[in-house]
Design brief:
The protein is built from 17 helices and 6 strands. Helix 4 runs antiparallel to helix 5. The chain has 424 residues and is mainly alpha-helical. The longest helix is centred in the middle third of the chain and has 27 residues. The model has no long low-confidence stretch (mean pLDDT 92). It has 3 domains: 49 residues, Rubrerythrin, domain 2 (Single Sheet); 216 residues, Citrate Synthase, domain 1 (Orthogonal Bundle); 107 residues, Cytochrome p450-Terp, domain 2 (Orthogonal Bundle). It is globular, with a radius of gyration of 23 Å. The chain is 51% helix and 5% strand. The strands form 2 sheets. It has a 3-stranded antiparallel sheet with strand order 1-2-3, with no helix packed on it.
Length: 424
Amino acid sequence: MTDKTARLMVEGLAADVELPIYASAVGPDVIDVTSLTKNGYFTYDPGFMSTAACESKITFIDGGKGVLLHRGYPIDQLAEHSDFLETSYLLLKGELPNAEQKKTFVQAVKDHSEVAPSVANLIQTFAKDAHPMAVLCSAVAALAAVYHSEIDITNDNDRDITAYRLIGQMPTLAAMTYKHLQGEDFVAPNAALEYAENYLNMTFGKTGESKVNPVLAKAMDRIFLLHADHEQNASTSTVRLSGSSGTNPFAAIAAGISTLWGPAHGGANEAVLAMLEEIGSVDNIDTYVEKAKDKADPFRLMGFGHRVYKNFDPRAKVMKQTCDEVLAELGLENDPLLAMAKKLEKIALEDEYFIKKKLYPNVDFYSGIIMKAIGIPPEMFTVIFATGRAVGWYAHWDEMVSEPYKIGRPRQLYTGYTQRDYPA
């Protein structure tokens, strides 16, 4: 409970409205406004920018200080010392696993990485020019049909197995989507490979092959890890809102994928590549930087600054190191597109305009460069994002259904017609 309250004075009410204040473990406290309804008022908060819609113990962000914590662990420490599956366990279970727990978890994910033939057949029905996110969304939703008799959301064991299936099959579905759109045969998961190695092998390998560059595998694992969760963003909030109806988690996560598909959410790293292609040459960088500084010019630099992080994106520092490692490994330091990115990065880190406005390169800037270097086409970038984010979505869904919860029902400020009669 709380011993702090806020008082809201509303003209016309006989008494002030007393509103409880609840303390966060870290970050802003929250004012409980639920009692406003009985007084005839709702709060108005377009975009929910000042509204806490849930209580969560999973992830905390302090955008002003550039802090991202998963269950209390800083993201840079996890990126340096952990890996994607260990971080997945942390998000789901609340604590880092010991050696035996991690071994069991990794094996369970591998044991559930095969995709049912009916889902593989579904993917093959799509046109070769279909958007990869449309294919992935449909495939994840189809998992609800495959496992329809094994998704009792009130059963702890069913929820655990569903987590293994989701985490295990997301890279398989992502790779199958790529292979189908390329007109190539699917490559089955290989239990001898680690998570990111397996994804790269299923994406770029051939049946019977399993040679994956360890530098690229490490980079891919780090991309998954750095995208694993990001608190109550649009897609995570969608998963929670969808799941609040009691729907199965595959359907809720398919809704999250649909939200991530939007260019304002998951398309930022793809937009970075489009921007570089528009700039066209290192020789044009200075011109485009001046265009970016001109408020009257519609051109905007993509991959710089962040809606949440007002200082720096803590994920970007780790991704920059990975980017340098990948480019060096592939000998692409002088690739024209990547050379433009490196010059833009240098300007952003040194130019007073960018420093003053805190327009530092963010995680999307570096992840787009890395995936381009690895050979992943831009239209697949958001699929990679979804593959990493699926565990965060599931952790939030699981947290919600593990406790009593209410179906989401936002209210509105109605500004349309009042009641009027149908013309005689």
